[in-house]
Amino acid sequence: MSSGHELSGIGAVEPPGVPLAVPIAFESEQPDPDAPPIPGPDPGPFPPSGPPELPPIPVKPCNLGFKDGCYAVTFKPKGAVRPLVGTLRVDRGAPDAGPDGVIVSGDLYTGAPPWVVQPAAGPAPGQGGSVAASLSRGGLPFELLPVRRIPIHPRQRYHSYLSGTRLSVPAFSVGNRPCQLTIDVDQFDYTQPAAGSHEGSFPASPSRSLRFVLHRSSPGFPHPVFGGPSFQGRVFQGTVDRGSITLTWVSSYLRRAVLEIDVLTGAVGPAPVPHPSGTGSEYFDTVFAGARWELTVEEDQVDVPVPGGVDPNICWSSADLHNLMSTVRKASTNLDTEWRTHLIVVPAAMGCSRGVMYDQIDVPREGSASFSNDGYPASHSSNFGTAEDEMQRDVPRAYLRSASHEVTHAFNQIHQESETSADNSIMTTTPSVADVLGGPATGAPGVFPDQINLGFNTTVRNHLAHMPDPVIRPGGWPFASWFPSGAPQAGDRELFDASELSLEVTVDNARAAFGAPVTVTWTLTNTSDAELVVPNDVRLEGLFATMTVTDDRGSERPVRPFVIECEAVRLAPLAAGGQLTASYRLFWSTAGFALDRPGRHLVSAAVTWSTAGVPVGVTGQVELWVDHPTNDAENRDAALAMNPEVGKWVALGGGAYHLTEAVDRLTALAGGGADLAGGGAGLEARAADAGPPSRVADAFAGLLPDRGAGTADSPAKRARRAPAKKTTARKTAKKTGR
Q1: How far apart are CA 235 and CA 244, in angstroms?
Q2: Res 120: pLDDT
Q3: Residues 412-432: what's their mean pLDDT?
Q4: Quick check: 244 and 76 in contact, CB under 8 A?
Q5: How far apart are CA 124 and CA 144, in angstroms?
Q6: Any idea what DSSP says for residue 417?
Q7: What is the rounded radius of gyration, in angstroms, for the C-alpha atoms of the chain?
Q8: 46's torsion region: left (phi>0), alpha (psi -120 to 50) or beta?
Q9: In CATH terms, is domain 494-627 a member of 2.60.40.3880?
Q10: Is the pLDDT of residue 134 over 50?
Q11: Which range (230-239, 659-668, 704-713) has the least confidence?
Q12: DSSP-derived 3-state class of residue 669
């Protein structure tokens, strides 16, 4: 399915950190009338009457009906107790696949052993058991019907990724040759994440190459409710039979997910907008249909109460917004049975940000936010046209584009200014879209916002359709973990010479205590005598800057931003001698603790982007030393601080009183590092008797909980109370198919 907005001139980009299927030739075998005769035994001399008339070689149509879409897969390896189950995606609609090309990809999970009875879709308990009765019973909810849907499997059972290398579907069969389709795939076995991590790994080269040889096993045509057709066959590795396989077509879409939208009192959520063709409308579901996703939009809550003590009409703190998202999202969400992401809409104010994405609520990429009362200040672009200085709620097309951008971040997609180049597509930032439409490339000022393309370019479209499940699905890999971080190699990017552009990196403490945060600062300077076009925002949160830390064993760890706030970033001129500066408190990220052991560490920062489609960048680094604890107080305080909840507190800039364990630990740290055993009031009492603060506690200055946290109505006390039940003023559900 096409979004109606096809972009030309943009090729697919293969991500460097994960395997990704690419277009292959689709072979539809036809009988060749000019082919030489099939060899056979020598008939010997012919009689005087001439050679006998031979019967024609039979040619019959195959009609395999191997159509596009998602197939449910069951692979039963020989000798294995558990089957492998999952999906195979057949995609002839990829924009860069060509008229006879196709992309085939798939994901396999370890299934349940055969003696475990799987729950079956069907009638509700107490209802009639036949399909006929199910279909005939009036008022039966659609979801109770035995509908074949794109299957969702538990994350911890992920097994391997499949990248198609050849597809052959015969149109005819000659002689006794069977009507069989063959699919060649490279299989990449997956290593599950270590405890406490969400990012596993794939090998750089295929674990093995397999061939699926299949025949049609079900007659008829695909049914819109029950799916079909089905294929059965064998799996070969070379000439060795590895087991049986079944493919069953389940959907014309390739993936499915749910978008939950909640709207705070005083805010206005994005709404459908007219399609440029004049027919129909565009919304989140049609945007993702362009990547062949079945996105169900659930407008779950409106008039969500404003949290106590929060002014919703100013720029929100990261901590307050994180707390709100933690309390209003659907509590029963199970990311092992559905792909669900959450969008919260709040008012905010002009100049805050059009939207943000959090890399972690409880697990990676669960939620994002849009700000309805922010918008399009002239300082962000001179090409906003009629949208200039207007709020998002009053510019519906631009608002939907911006919100779709944040939602797509939650599905682990990055800016096109970094991956390819700025264009008129969803994953280019808003100011860059305005500049592309109204800049020198088109000479058409004012076409923003009316001609905004609510679609993905080829690169993002193919990433969404074919990246491995763990990379894409909410609760899988942390944001942008598939994209290189830290210092790029010269072979990966064109690097600036120091006489052109420099990046100086410094730390506030070159000799830090173990367990203490360290502030890293970097300054980008145009050292040339001419203006250079560079990113206008070099914060980690803006996504053009990256950072890694390498310890004395050579182990490298990326440092990822916890809050993705990038809606104002773009490429802009930097005058000769001009500078851009940013800093980050180096402590914890979704990749873990950056300084997790004493010793020498090398902190590398990079600012990278693409210009005219060519990856470029500049790098810098600084050394720091992490001391072993020098006394009991530093040992004790390091044990308090090195906790993921404290890490989130630091990443949110403090004030996150809903992180109650962090509040307890930091309250103890402020009191001299009391032992946490017993917790609660006992912890506070022991804190009063604890010894003097250590260097670890000193490093948390400005980050500690308010001294009034123990009062009756302090933020900490409010956060420890049971969260209020979700207040639903109105519930609606918008299904795909608009």
Answers
A1: 6
A2: 42
A3: 87
A4: yes
A5: 7
A6: H
A7: 29
A8: beta
A9: yes
A10: no
A11: 704-713
A12: helix
> SS3 helix, strand, coil % of the chain, rounded to 5?
20, 30, 50
- CA 277 – CA 272 distance, rounded (Å): 14
List 431's β-bridge partners, or say none: none
Residue with tokens 């799987």, as numbered in its chain = 118
- Confidence band, pLDDT 50/70/90 cuts, at residue 7: very low
Distance CA 385, CA 379 (A): 13
Tens-place pLDDT, residues 181-206: 999 999 999 999 888 778 889 999 99
Q: How confident is the model at residue 736 (pLDDT cuts 50, 70, 90)?
A: very low
Residue 124 pLDDT grade (very low, low, confident, very high; cuts 50, 70, 90): very low
Cβ pair 181, 90 in contact under 8 A: no
Distance from C-alpha of 217 to C-alpha of 232, rounded to nearest angstrom = 6
Q: Which CATH architecture has domain 255-479?
A: 3-Layer(aba) Sandwich (3.40)
Tell me how far apart the alpha carbons of residues 349 and 372 are, in angstroms, rounded to a whole number: 8
| CB 391 within 8 Å of CB 375 | yes
State the Cα angle at 165 between 159 and 169, rounded to 5°: 110
Beta bridge partners of 495: 617
CA torsion sign for 669, 674, 679, 684 is negative
Burial state string for 694-723 with b = 16 or more CB within 10 A and e = fewer than 16: bbbbebbeebbbeeebeeeebbbbebeeee
Q: Among 376, 319, 377, 325, which Cα is nearest to 346's?
A: 325
- The b/e string for 218-234 (b: 16+ C-beta within 10 A; e otherwise) is eeeebeeeebbbbbebb
Q: What is the mean pLDDT of residues 266-280?
A: 92
* 246 residue type, one letter: T
Beta carbons within 8 Å of 406's beta carbon, 6+ residues apart: 343, 355, 356, 357, 368, 369, 370, 567
Ranges in the chain annotated CATH 2.60.40.3880: 494-627
CA distance 391 to 350: 7
Half-sphere exposure of 145 (CA within 13 A, CB side): 18
The full length of the chain comes to 738
Distance of CA 683 to the CA centre of its chain: 40
The mean predicted confidence, pLDDT, of the chain is: 80
Over 60: is that where the pLDDT of 35 sits?
Answer: no
> Residue 696 in 3-state DSSP?
helix
Integer Cα distance of 252 and 192 in angstroms: 30
Q: Are strands 240-251 and 281-282 parallel, antiparallel or unpaired?
A: unpaired
Q: Spell out the SS3 assignment of 423-435.
A: CCCCCCCHHHHHH
Rounded distance between C-alpha atoms, residue 400 and residue 578, angstroms = 35
pLDDT at 685: 40
**CATH 3.40.390.10 boundaries in the chain:** 255-479
Residue 243 bridge partners (DSSP) = 77, 235
What is residue 471's three-state secondary structure? Answer: helix
Distance separating alpha carbons of residues 325 and 342, to the nearest angstrom: 8
Helix (H) or strand (E) holding 408: helix 396-410
Confidence band of 656 (pLDDT split at 50, 70, 90):
confident
Q: CA 502, CA 578: separation in Å to the nearest integer? A: 11
Q: Please, are residues 30 and 172 in contact by the beta-carbon 8 Å criterion?
A: yes
- Beta bridge pairs of residue 63: none
Give me the pLDDT at residue 441, please. Answer: 56
Say if CB 273 and CB 220 are below 8 A apart.
no
Structure tokens at 161: 């990724």
Following CA atoms 133, 134, 135, 137 in sequence, which dihedral angle do they give, to the nearest 10 degrees?
70
Is the distance from CB of 537 to CB of 569 less than 8 angstroms? yes
Contact call for residues 123 and 133 (beta carbons, < 8 A): yes
